[in-house]
């Protein structure tokens, strides 16, 4: 199992989740974060940190968002190559624009 970042993260990116992750699993693009399922150890530390409840275990992703399971794997693999690893808290997206 791995955690999955879903739709509520889009245009949010408070990044509270990132600082509690012991495995540095998070990658970001311009809109949201994604979890690398190959490195997530299912510790669930990130789940309560997210203020918009965007993170779910892959067996518990709500039906409208199940495509985010594959999307997290695909995007984190691409973003890893692009150096879009995120390991420290950043200003929320709205504060950056
Ligand atoms: S805390 Fe939630 S909304 Fe914020 S970046 Fe993490 S997953 Fe996205
Ligand atoms: S479950 Fe744990 S290892 Fe996986 S992304 Fe969340 S904090 Fe990181």
Describe this structure in words.
- By secondary structure, the protein is α+β, with helices and mostly antiparallel strands.
- The chain has one domain: Alpha-Beta Plaits, CATH 3.30.70.
- The chain has helices at 16-20, 67-81, 93-96; strands at residues 3-5, 26-28, 33-35, 55-57.
- It has a two-stranded antiparallel sheet with strand order 1-4.
- The protein is globular, with a radius of gyration of 12 Å.
- The N and C termini lie far apart (35 Å).
- The structure holds iron/sulfur cluster (2 copies).
- One iron/sulfur cluster binds at residues 3, 20-23, 25, 35, 40-46.
How are helices and strands ordered from N to C? EHEEEHH
Tell me the overall shape. Answer: globular
Strand order of the largest sheet: 1-4
CATH class: Alpha Beta
Distance N to C terminus? 35 Å
The bound ligands are: iron/sulfur cluster
What is the rounded Rg? Answer: 12 Å
Largest sheet: 2 strands, antiparallel
Rounded average pLDDT? 93
Structural class of the secondary structure composition?
alpha+beta
- Low-pLDDT runs of 5+ residues are none
Binned, the helix content reads 10-25%
CATH fold annotation: Alpha-Beta Plaits
How many individual helices? 3
- Total discrete domains: 1
Strand percentage lies at 5-15%
Count of extended strands: 4
CATH architecture: 2-Layer Sandwich
């Amino acid at each position: 199992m791995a955690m999955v970042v879903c739709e509520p993260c889009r245009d949010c990116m408070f990044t509270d989740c990132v600082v509690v992750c012991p495995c540095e699993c998070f990658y970001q693009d311009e809109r949201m974060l994604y979890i690398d399922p190959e490195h997530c150890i299912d510790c669930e530390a990130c789940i309560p940190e997210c203020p918009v409840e965007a993170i779910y275990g892959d067996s518990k992703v709500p039906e409208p968002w199940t495509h985010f399971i594959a999307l997290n794997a695909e995007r984190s693999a691409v973003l890893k190559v692009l150096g879009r690893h995120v390991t420290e808290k950043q200003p929320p997206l709205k504060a950056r624009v």
